[in-house]
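Record type: monomer structure entry
Structure origin: computed from sequence
Chain ID: A
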Amino acid sequence: MNLNFVIIEDNINSQKQLCEKLKEYQLVNPACTFQIQTFISFEAFLDRKVFLSLSEIHLIILDIELPGENGLEAARILRKQGYDGDILYFSNYLHRVRIITVETAYEQNTSFSTVKNILPESFCQCHRGIIVNMNHVECLDSSVLTLSNNEQLTVSKPYLKQIRNAFLLL
């Protein structure tokens, strides 16, 4: 079986690592052959001149944090253009934590669990990889938090009871 993969990732080292992992898989599974095409941005992918049509692509590996169109918006555009193949999302923040405050956002070189363990009790995890300061929660509607800056966050099922209890204590 011959498959066509696309990797859209702005970090060249991450592109190379993904390609190496796919090639390792191919060595273990010789019946599965594939071609890999890489792009550094979604715009570069859209500007491709000689390559496959969307219907010929079996898998798109898409970074969430891309310059220009982010990965989620890129996926919406791909679906609108008729791509019905698989999209695998990933983010390269394995040991980087993005911290968003009322005034700004910044990144820290540490693990998510380290940050989670040092935060005061007013912080609760509401989703995999998302911790919210309950002091900035204005509303909890079913499983959606509305923050003081009007941003909305979905609460995933494993954290819903904890978030509801914390909201009641506000």
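Annotation 1: The chain has a mean pLDDT of 83.
Annotation 2: DSSP finds five helices and eleven strands in the chain.
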